[in-house]
Specification:
Blueprint lengths: L6 E3 H9 L1 H9 L10 H24 L4 H8 L5 H17 L4 E11 L2 E12 L5 E7 L6 H6 L1 H13 L14 E7 L7 E6 L2 H20 L12 E3 L21 H5 L1 H4 L5 E3 L6
Parallel strand pairs: 1-3, 4-5
Antiparallel strand pairs: 2-3, 3-4, 5-6, 7-8
Helix pairs in contact: 1-2, 1-7, 3-5, 7-8
Length: about 280
């Protein structure tokens, strides 16, 4: 059972939708995700580190650190992809983003007896009082329809309408004045954007969808491994053999006893749900 109150996030809901077992392991049992020690896993971790470093560069730049200083301290020879992402970002932000920006912003809003949390790469307030939610992506662009279905496209605008009033003089932000922007760092001269304007009707639809899925999660007694082979990866050890480390992925978390109950939580040997690492 899910401990209450529980803080949901877009990544938790995405994990649940793709593989309920992965949701249970990450957010209820609070296992750290296992690092793979072979070829593709190491390459994936290297890409993750590059994505994290790019986010740090943008964060520091938003705080006012000069690009030249960031380049001299954080970029190294051989950082070809990272350097290209950074140069595209500098060109795009100068042409598109207003001066009023909040980077690495975390907001949380109540939803029933639980909470819904969003951690934004950047929220920008334009001169006309409208808002851009910008999410940096260093992977390949997704199809717009697939991107719109992701829980990130639901949670981020919704939470901003519920908890972002302090960015708007203490007044709630009108859903019609919010646009969700995904910026892909590896495309063209200034990156590529996919944008989704928000609306009152979309907000109502999203709230109903959120309440439905959270109610479903709270009512579950078990969290099975997905049958979709596309979300599985092969691993020489099962989750039962992982060190019983706990992470701080969830503001409320579960009890320590959950992390020790590996017999109930382990998927079939040699198979675990693959996380969707999407920077």
């Amino acid at each position: 059972m899910i401990p209450q109150p529980f803080q949901f996030s877009q990544s938790a809901l995405q994990d649940y939708g793709e593989c309920p077992r992965r949701f249970e392991l990450r957010y209820v049992a609070q296992f750290d995700w296992p690092a793979l020690d072979v070829g593709p896993g190491l390459e994936l971790e290297a890409r993750v580190r590059e994505g994290q470093l790019f986010h740090e560069l943008v964060h520091q730049h938003t705080l006012g650190v000069a690009p030249e200083l960031l380049e001299s301290t954080l970029l190294e020879p051989g950082d070809g992809d990272l350097k290209g992402w950074w140069e595209r970002y500098l060109r795009w932000q100068a042409a598109r983003l207003p001066r009023e920006r909040q980077a690495e912003l975390t907001l949380s809003a109540p939803l029933g007896a639980n909470r819904l949390m969003a951690k934004y790469d950047l929220v920008a307030r334009q001169e006309d009082g409208s808002f851009l939610i910008v999410d940096w992506k260093t992977g390949r662009p997704s199809r717009p329809a697939a991107l719109k279905r992701r829980w990130q496209s639901v949670v981020y605008p919704y939470v901003l309408t519920q908890a972002g009033g302090w960015l708007h003089g203490g007044e709630p932000i009108d859903p019609e004045r919010i646009t969700m922007v995904y910026w892909f760092a590896g495309e063209g001269e200034q990156g590529k954007t996919i944008e989704f304007p928000y609306s009152v009707a979309q907000q109502r639809e999203d709230e109903a969808r959120l309440r439905e899925v959270i109610g479903e999660i709270l009512a579950r007694a078990d969290f099975p491994l997905t049958r979709d082979e596309r979300t599985h990866i092969r691993n020489p050890s099962s989750v039962a053999s992982l060190p019983k480390q706990k992470s701080v992925r969830n503001g409320y978390g579960g009890s320590p006893n959950h992390a020790d109950d590996t017999s109930a939580l382990s998927p079939p040997p040699q198979r675990i749900c693959a996380p969707d690492l999407y920077f």
